[in-house]
Amino acid sequence: MEEFANKGISRRAFVGAGAFAAAAAAMVAGCSPENSLEQTEDTAPRNYRVDAEFDESQDGQWLPVSCWTSCGGRCLLKAYVVDGMPMRIKTDDTHEDSFENFQNRACPRGRAQRMHAFGADRIKYPMKRSGWQPGGGENSNGQMRGKDTWERISWDEAFDLIATEVKRIIDEHGPLAINYAGIPFYNCAVAQTLLPALGGYTWHLGFTSYGSWTATPDQIGIDNTAGEPGTMGTNDRLSMLKSDLIVLHGNNPVHAAAGSPSLHLMRAHEAGIPFVFIGPDYNPTAAMVEAKWIPVRPTTDAAFLSAVIYEMIKLDEERGDVVDWDFLYSHTVGFDDDHMPADATLNENVHGYVMGEYDGTPKTAEWAAEICGCTAEDIRWYAEQVGRKNKVSMYYAYSIARNNQAATLPQLALTLACMGAHVGADGQQFGPTYHYFAHNCGPNLVQPGEMRQGDVPEQAQNSVFGAFDLGYRAASSWKAMAEGHGPDGWTGEDVSKDIRMIWCESGGYLTSQPDVNNGIKAFRAMDFVLTQAINFKPEAQFSDIVLPASTPWEYGYDQLAFQQYKQFNRESFFFPTAFTEPLFESKPDVEIAYELAKRLGLDADKMWPYDEEQRQFDRILNATVLDADGVTYKPLVTITQERCDELGFDGHAQEGVIDYDELRAAGVYRVERTEGDNYGYIAYKDFVDDPEGHPLNTVSGKWELYCQSAKDAVDALGCPDKIKPYGCVTESAGGYQGLSEEFPLLVYQPHYLRRAHTTHDNVGWLRQAFKNPVYMNAQDAAERGIEQGDIVEVSSETGKMIRIASVLETLMPGVVGIPHGSWPEMNEENGVDENGSENTITINVQNVGSYNSYHSTVVQVRKYEDQDVPQAEMRPLRMPEGIEE
């Protein structure tokens, strides 16, 4: 294999990078080339500003570049690049915006992307924590993680130290002693190749996004083919326009995914379709589409849906034509006693549950109104609207399934949809909406090409999914990891595996998992913590060795991770350009994995025999686009053999629909939609039209409103909580204590334009543009003497944090909104997180369905005693101490 370091720039035929290093050092905000880590009173105000003047007459060019933010907006970014440096950012201007062919416009996060890539806290070279030595035990000096000083080391020293410690841990404790704290689906180098080749690893229990949609979709018949649970259960954007009513249950794409997902809803509103929003706040998306608001407290959505099902049954008994009984009985099993599946072991079902046959409590509108905070009239009104007479699109946010009462919420949503026959037809759909699938689902009209792969060792192919399975049981909560055992109350093999190393790569697991304080304790309990990252993020702060990773704007990046997985929406696929050498001493993640594999006795050249530029070329050359017949995929690009040879790539001549160089210049290919075209997508249409001829992949071949296999799968995990095989309100066995005098407020965690998950919380431009708020109801704030802009303390049984009060009339009383993603900055003297990570105060109870309990947290809010404490937008970024240039 050609060594990574010797890849020729002739392979990169798009833009030069000759003077990049010097220009980058000068442009990184707040840093001088002489001492790029020094921060003084004079330089601190410049932390968030790029001072280079912009002149488009300079010898540069606009290039399409990657927006790797995990928000789901899927937008086109362009950078004006001069000698390897991005001087300005703009968004999609390749064509006039139209309904048929919309522009993929970037939000503030994308437009601030260069300050993520070139910010003051960019990790520039490998670093080792001064007090750490390999060998475990006292050598780890773990209590100093997050407090210690740092030493600059060479790449060779870093690789040797890491390989030595990884080998020792595997030899002494086994491969499952390594906890991979990243997103294994997104990165192929470490999680999908290197660690599995070493025998596997343990993954963190629970999904930060999916909630209980993680556990049951496959078993109950909800489409999971896209890899994002349930998202393929909704139709394309043109179908939505046939609806009589659009329901947003917890959704807020204006903040979560401000690109095309928001645009599609705006277009439906412009078409005059009425909207209903269900959730604790009247959020910006609800306001954009002028939705009717049904206020529902966090954690109570299962109760709300149960009551809607009850009221639909009662309305149908009174006047008929509300429930589509023929559809319900022909396409589902398990609704009532007369339609139970053959494998049922419990003589219960959703009909008996909502009627109160098992607990003596009918799930009436009045019952749910008291729990949810809405009115009984709202519930009955909604039950009538979602009856069979209307065409209804019901979109659910994953967020409503991230609590201890929602283990079977997907079955309740499925039951409601089937009762009204709102599935498998134009203008009728149900399911979660997420990322690039939101409000425009279906197979991609442009498909990326296959990329050549190396020879993955056999043990890697056989172990990675086993590692995931073991991870569900062994990787417990932070508290359990800190104390050296599996999650409390769980049983089963490997629950008590001893985790000795945390390997942090993609994502921000310390910040995004509940219970940060115990997360810090878990980090400090390890023999070894390794982080490879772009910025000095919280995981890096509590590590022993930190490796500088390059970004997708830099040559050699592992394109399979961010490019192939994320760079699309249904009608567009993005082909961004890398335009410069890796910044400072950073390396692509795939190169880091390659070098470690060599030192760990693996055949790295067979595992990664191809450089990433060749693989990126494969991805473009082999890309296909759906023909106008809506059935056949054909080659996307036209290229000659001469052009392949000029570029220096192994390729072949072919005829497609767009010239290769034209595609690279545009950075995107989109398929224009028109009314009546052959590109439409109706989820489950084949099954709905012919349930016998196109059965679902379930035990019964139908949607399972009672699902024995779903219950058996969860029970097999050994969790102390036990779920019912049908949709209901889950009674959790632990963790959620309920509201009390000490903690009288419920928490929910919306997304926010300041960041995407945890990404961008370090970007000063966004910190200055968007404060770090706590949303409070005006009445709750007044009772506590809190006014708009006050610094407040939010406390729970797990921790304390401070933020700025945002006092609202559009939020339910008794509810607190804490926008997700702040990086924790712990003041260990008083135990307060001064940057307000919401997961400082969330509980971490690993329970049914392998999901976390984010929204099962109760808190108190008080005005903070020190109103002069500087907030994040007024403080310098946290930087490593002890480094000398």
Automatic annotation (TrEMBL):
Gene Ontology molecular function terms on file: electron transfer activity; iron-sulfur cluster binding; molybdenum ion binding; molybdopterin cofactor binding; oxidoreductase activity
One cellular-component annotation, GO: outer membrane-bounded periplasmic space
InterPro entries the record matches: Asp_de-COase-like_dom_sf, MoPterin_dinucl-bd_dom, Mopterin_OxRdtase, Mopterin_OxRdtase_4Fe-4S_dom, Prok_Mopterin_Oxidored, TAT_signal
Keywords: Iron, Iron-sulfur, Metal-binding, Oxidoreductase, Signal
4Fe-4S Mo/W bis-MGD-type domain residues: 60-121
One GO-annotated biological process of the protein: anaerobic respiration
Protein family per UniProt: Belongs to the prokaryotic molybdopterin-containing oxidoreductase family.
PANTHER family per UniProt: DIMETHYL SULFOXIDE REDUCTASE DMSA (PTHR43742:SF3), TRIMETHYLAMINE-N-OXIDE REDUCTASE (PTHR43742)
Protein name: Anaerobic dehydrogenase, typically selenocysteine-containing
The organism of origin for this protein: Slackia heliotrinireducens (strain ATCC 29202 / DSM 20476 / NCTC 11029 / RHS 1) (Peptococcus heliotrinreducens)
Upper classification of the organism: Bacteria, Bacillati, Actinomycetota, Coriobacteriia, Eggerthellales
